[in-house]
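Hi team,

As requested, here is the filled-out complex form for the coenzyme A run. I kept the field names the same as last time so the parser does not choke. Let me know if anything looks off before we queue the next batch.

— J.
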Amino acid sequence: MSYHTEFRRSLDHPETFWREQAANIAWMKPPNTVWQAKPNGHGEWFSDGEMNTCDIALDANVRAGRGDQKALIYDSPVTGQTGSFTYSQLTDLAARFAGALANQGIGKGDRVIIYMPMIPEAVIAMLGCARIGAIHSVVFGGFAAHELAVRIDDATPKAIITASCGIEVKKVIPYKPLVDSAIEQASHKPETCIVFQRPQVSAELQPGRDLDWTEAMAGAQAVDPVPVKATDPLYILYTSGTTGKPKGVVRDNGGHAVALRYSMTLVYDARPGDVFWAASDVGWVVGHSYIVYAPLFAGCTTVLYEGKPVKTPDAGSFWRVCQDHKVNLLFTAPTAFRAVRKEDPEADELKRYDLSSLRRIFLAGERLDPPTYEWLREKTGLPVMDHWWQTETGWAICCNPVGIEAMPSKPGSATMPSPGYDVRIVDPAGRQVRYGEQGEVVVKLPLPPGCLTTVWGDDERFVDTYLKPVPGYYFSGDGGYVDEDGYVFIMGRTDDVINVAGHRLSTGEMEEVIAAHPAVAECCVVGARDELKGQIPIGLVLVKDGATITPDELEDELVDMVRERIGAIACLRQAIVVDRLPKTRSGKILRRVIRQIADRESYAVPSTIDDPAILEEISRHFPK
Ligand code: COA
Ligand code: AMP
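And here is what came back:
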């Protein structure tokens, strides 16, 4: 079947299309109802179906005869450890961890926060939650205690699962003090904290609340997967929005399993037994979907890598992993290859390894800049596929549908809309624009299975953010255009979200932190272009009258505050003191112009600006 036929069928006959896809997963009670719309155009997929996500990921593979196949390979250059788990072994571990959770009184619908480094126990914890219908919320280990506290208060978990430490290249980061501090800061107090002790650090356990992972496992019975409704939440994943408060994206069980299973064929052309490596982190959506769930749904072997593209130990580490584990499909963020290219521009490291198993390289998480695309294609000789998606969708909105029909790639384009996604480009008034014209990227409702069902505890925010801006459409927050051949080009966010090394962050949140400094009268944070990380945040600060702090001292304190409150990944390194902020006459800060100045681009002086001279003052901080 051609891509175009499949795509049209998905939009013209969505119920037939997704019923067929639903037949590819193991239901406990197959759904009769495929789609049920709500008045606002959103709705529910497979509402009367029952299944269990852990059963589909693990037990179903054992039943299909893959019990002795490797399900998970762990490769950790930072500890020198490698290992693997078969489907039978991983099933047993997830079943026992589910039992350990049940022993703590955790069951269907209870929330569990997982704050873990990239170790197999993180995957076991996620699958263990899914097995008993508990809702996990994985928090990326690079977030500071305050961010964890915000998520604890929002998700109100019964338990937190953590490890004694994470390891960043050579730096050992104790996690338990961060967890303790987060619980102290939060109003909600989880009843249990299960701690996996790593040999590098021994965490102190608080009697009555904290439990050692190994002891919890030793005292637990394996439990069977419980049936859950397809519409029951599988997880909450917090992502940055335009305000300081992160949004808890809620993903269901049934639609998620159906969509991810389909994506493994459509987007990645993965087959059972393939080795699939998503070099990301379980704390991000890429990690949820393509380190943990989708490769297992498809009977593949997934790779969990605790390291970096460079420095662990060198720019050949990705190629080494591909060789050692015979990786067939590799997925990462462009920034990872920009880091590799910077250290090894001629790709000399690549020549040391046998990459004959590798079929394709997939990139997402930020715009794939054409130079990185060309470099990777030329040096590896492999097809390099860009695809566009978001935490909200959980799988690719646009991709090169290689599993159905490979399209010629165009540098800078994420290729075509995936079946199920009716992508349109609209102007600020919501009118569709012509081919080649840039606008807001929206998706006509309904969204396909697998996409967010709501924002945890705040359906109004879900509706306001995603459904209200352009009625009848999902508002992506990205800008872009479609060319005459139907190729979609995503050019970047149109809101205050920025993308730093493939990590999605909110400038609004950083502004809240900076504004809390006693010497700061007003501030603004913009994302400036960065050769390695794509974007980095830069703060402009107006000091209160009478404040005696020097600009350098203030910058140091603000950089520390952002690191302390949000985490090192925020990478705010510059906070420039200015006399005034450029504003419109009605008082709105002109962020776009500031961004253009920081990017050393030419800019037009907006007619609405109250004082044009300020732009020249700011320009002096960014000499060309
Ligand atoms: N736990 C604790 N700290 C963490 C962390 C974690 N899980 N992840 C990152 N950090 C810290 C780093 O140690 C660093 O701290 P420092 O300022 O004290 O050195 C800071 O956060 C910034 O980290 P990072 O953004 O990773 O920058 P880097 O310079 O160390 O590495 C890259 C740059 C490009 C190699 C790295 O960002 C990378 O591998 N990116 C791939 C992105 C990715 O996987 N994205 C997921 C979406 S697909
Ligand atoms: P996240 O929710 O962290 O996955 O980040 C999603 C955001 O990353 C999107 O809204 C885009 O701005 C950006 N993004 C992801 N993939 C791509 C891509 N292939 N091309 C351009 N931008 C992308």
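Two things worth flagging: The pocket of adenosine monophosphate (ligand 2) is lined by residues 239, 285, 364-368, 386-391, 414, 477-478, 490, 493, 499, 504 (CB under 6 Å). The first strand starts at residue 35 and ends at 37.

Thanks,
J.
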